[in-house]
Write a structure and sequence with these properties.
Largest sheet: 6 strands, mixed
Strand content: over 45%
Distance between the termini: 78 Å
Structural class: alpha+beta
Shape: elongated
Order of helices and strands: HEEEEEEEEEEEEEEHEEE
Number of helices: 2
């Protein structure tokens, strides 16, 4: 092989190797970066869920008598807000007496991940919604259901001050509660029915949770973009029913 042929061969080899490197880098950039971003967003949702688990613990503390609690939530290109897209009503129907009815706004606190997915605190429960796993109640509300007794704790959240904050700072969520009030407690009669209706963007998640506790649930209306749906859950023939009410104020600091 003469010098010209060797030069051409080396040039072709260089071009082929360079093209392979460029193609590899392009593939890694197109696929790898997307995967890294997806993994990063999933980790942000996981971190938010852990923070909201602490938030739910602190909420439980104040409903049981603690004066107030502050919980730090780290925002990583996310938004923390109070929303008005959820409410609940509860009906207790004792034998031989008129039904008793309560209705209240839930005013959930919501952590929105910029790329999609959210965590919310609603009636003491933690809900998670993500593209990978869908929506679920990952931590239930304060609810006791056994063979002959149901105890419901109704938590009305009311937000004060700015309803939304975002960015990458750390936000303290301050919560304070009024003294818990016993609204209803009756074991002297049988109860034909206890019904819980939830207006929420996550009817499936709430329905699955209440069914796992022993209720029978029916979706009254499906949620739509910017419009919550409604799920109705009922349990029949209960000896004793207890309903506790507490009002909680929340604020972002």
């Amino acid at each position: 092989m003469n010098g010209d042929e060797r030069a051409v061969s080396e040039t072709v080899s260089f071009v082929l190797v360079f093209a392979l490197v460029v193609a590899s880098v392009g593939t890694v950039y197109a696929v790898g970066v997307s995967e890294l971003e997806t993994a990063r967003d999933a980790e942000r949702v996981e971190n938010a869920q852990r923070a909201f688990d602490v938030l739910a613990d602190n909420l439980r503390d104040i409903t049981e008598g603690a004066p107030s609690r502050g919980t730090e939530v780290k925002l990583s290109e996310a938004t923390l807000r109070s929303v008005d897209d959820a409410s609940m009503n509860v009906t207790v129907d004792p034998d031989g007496a008129s039904p008793t009815y309560w209705e209240y706004a839930l005013s959930p606190i919501v952590y929105d991940v910029e790329a999609g997915g959210e965590i919310r605190l609603s009636n003491g429960a933690v809900l998670r919604d993500s593209e990978r796993s869908g929506s679920a109640v990952v931590r239930g509300p304060p609810l006791i259901v056994d063979d002959d007794h149901i105890q419901l704790t109704l938590i009305r959240q009311e937000h004060v001050g700015s309803a939304v904050t975002g960015g990458s700072q750390t936000v303290r969520v301050r919560m304070a509660a009024t003294r818990s009030r016993l609204f209803y407690d009756n074991e002297s009669v049988n109860h034909e029915m206890v019904r819980v209706n939830v207006t929420t963007p996550y009817t499936d998640a709430w329905g699955r949770h209440y069914e796992s506790a022993g209720f029978a649930c029916t979706e009254i209306s499906e949620p739509a973009p910017d419009t919550p749906g409604r799920v109705s859950c009922t349990v029949n023939d209960v000896d004793r029913v207890t309903v506790i009410w507490v009002r909680v104020t929340t604020a972002f600091e």
